[in-house]
Prior knowledge:
This protein is α/β, with parallel strands linked by helices. It has four helices and three strands, in the order H-E-H-H-E-H-E. It has one domain (about 5-85): D-Maltodextrin-Binding Protein, domain 2 (3-Layer(aba) Sandwich), CATH 3.40.190. A three-stranded parallel sheet has the order 2-1-3. The two termini are about 10 Å apart.
Amino acid sequence: MFSVRSIISGCAILAMVVLGSAHEGYGQERLKLATTTSTENTGLLEVLLPPFERRFDTRVDVIAVGTGKALKLGENGDVDVILVHD
């Protein structure tokens, strides 16, 4: 599974990425987040996203796919944020 260090690192990275990318679009209606299915299955996003959505009045649409597909979505400009792991 995931080590505590990996989870903490992932949370910190997620916070930096999501908050950093939302800074410019404050009040934006929707933010598309591509992530891996394993990240979504941890329940981490269910904990982190609701306070973020309330704070920034922004809806985050999560697209959970494999790592390669998530990266491709980002490369194509189809999502605003990518959250993957190795």
